[in-house]
Amino acid sequence: MSEHEQYNEKKQDPSLKLFVVLTKAQRAIADLVKDDIKRYGLNPTEFGVLELLYHQGAQPLQKIGEKILLASGSITYVVDKLEKKEYLERVPCPKDRRITYASITEKGEELLHGIFPDHWEQIKQITGGLTEEEKRDAAELLKKLGRYADQQKN
After folding, report:
1. DSSP secondary structure of 31-77
2. Beta strand spans in 68-132 (E)
3. How many CB atoms are closer than 10 A to CB 101?
4. 38-129: which CATH number, 1.10.10.10, 1.10.443.10, 3.40.50.2300, 3.40.1390.30?
5. Taking the complete model, does pTM exceed 0.90, yes or no?
6. C-alpha to C-alpha distances, 11 to 8, 25, 134, nearest whole angstrom
7. Per residue, what are the HEC states of 3-16?
């Protein structure tokens, strides 16, 4: 096969186009979500930590990074900032002194109660370019793609 034929074959493969489109869409959506979260005096990482604690309850500090895809060194910094704002507190594990939990405070819960309705509406607007069915289909396809990509790491 000539170089020209190989190039044409690669041009027809939608893999690179999918990657570029996914990357651009993710960036555009993330920028809009980040702007929305900033309105509440939080950055996306702080919001992610509070959202995790709000929905799943107290979490060991070591596990938060895994769950919101954040480097462990950054977790301490983010937790410190949220603790200073009184949105969360550190709670020592009674069974293992090496483990400390982060727990959302009442003030943190009140903040999220106030944020969520508007934030949800913003997410609906941001994803408004798709119908409900297209959103479900896209979510399933992207989940499938993500699981496959995760398997490639092993």
Report:
1. HHHHHHHHTTT--HHHHHHHHHHHHH--EEHHHHHHHHT--HHHHHH
2. 88-92, 100-104
3. 19
4. 1.10.10.10
5. no
6. 5, 21, 26
7. HHHHHHHHHHCCHH
pLDDT per residue as tens digits for the range 41-63: 899 899 999 999 999 999 998 88
By DSSP bridging, strand 100-104 and strand 88-92 are antiparallel
Pairing, β 59-60 against β 100-104: antiparallel
Cα–Cα distance measured from residue 60 to residue 100, given in angstroms and rounded to the nearest whole number: 6
* Unique residue bearing structure tokens 């913003």: 122
Listing DSSP states for 124-149 in one string gives HHHTTTS-HHHHHHHHHHHHHHHHHH
